[in-house]
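Example 9 (inverse folding). The structure is encoded as follows.
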């Protein structure tokens, strides 16, 4: 039986070389390198997912703020930092109100809010879109939970001992920035964070997982260290 050998054209090897090595060479040959200190803050729309009852709850608006370091390599950049983010959801509920004689007086409406207070460390690689001021970035994040609570009727229930301390997932964003001077720059960014880890410390008896999701609108001001 004759074996047929397929010979790969040299141009295929050349194309693979360019695809693999050209981005690396591009990073190594950049001469316009800048380190920026970035302050970002804004609102975040957050909700929990993974269980039927949780999926039926509403998202909520929470704060997010922190500092970041951005290493600019001309069109490309690397970014990391440390942010505070309050993730969770809210659910409307009600109680029946009775008087001392046991007569029904009405219904009391209230909101139950679940709070996950995180310190978040993201890691991004991004690219500027020419000289337009627009940019896009994608990466991962790691978060440490320092408190988890449920709030309702001016009372807080601490559930931190029953919650996993570490969260992590994928993150991506798009934004726009403009120079204010040679060293100062302002920016606005939309960022989406998709948690991949179960926040429960122990498996839920009824099954399912509980994961975080948030979409941030971040206003920023940065200072460039030449």
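The amino acid assigned to each position is listed next.
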């Amino acid at each position: 039986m004759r074996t047929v050998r397929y010979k790969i054209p040299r141009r295929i090897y050349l194309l693979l070389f360019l695809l693999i090595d050209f981005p690396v060479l591009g990073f190594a040959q950049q001469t316009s390198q800048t380190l920026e200190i970035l302050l970002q803050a804004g609102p975040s729309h957050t909700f929990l997912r993974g269980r039927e009852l949780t999926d039926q709850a509403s998202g909520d608006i929470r704060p997010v703020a922190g500092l970041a370091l951005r290493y600019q390599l001309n069109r490309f950049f690397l970014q990391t930092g440390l942010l505070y983010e309050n993730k969770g959801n809210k659910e409307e509920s009600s109680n029946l109100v009775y008087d001392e004689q046991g007569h029904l007086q009405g219904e009391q409406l209230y909101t139950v809010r679940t709070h996950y207070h995180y310190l978040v460390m993201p890691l991004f690689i991004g690219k500027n879109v020419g000289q337009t001021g627009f940019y896009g970035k994608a990466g991962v994040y790691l978060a440490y939970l320092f408190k988890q609570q449920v709030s309702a009727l001016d009372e807080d229930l601490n559930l931190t001992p029953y919650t996993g301390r570490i969260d992590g997932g994928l993150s991506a964003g798009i934004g726009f920035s403009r120079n204010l001077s040679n060293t100062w720059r302002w920016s606005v960014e939309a960022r989406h964070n998709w948690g991949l880890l179960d926040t429960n410390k122990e498996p839920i008896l009824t099954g399912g997982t509980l994961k975080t999701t948030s979409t941030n609108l971040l206003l920023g001001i940065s200072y460039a260290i030449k």
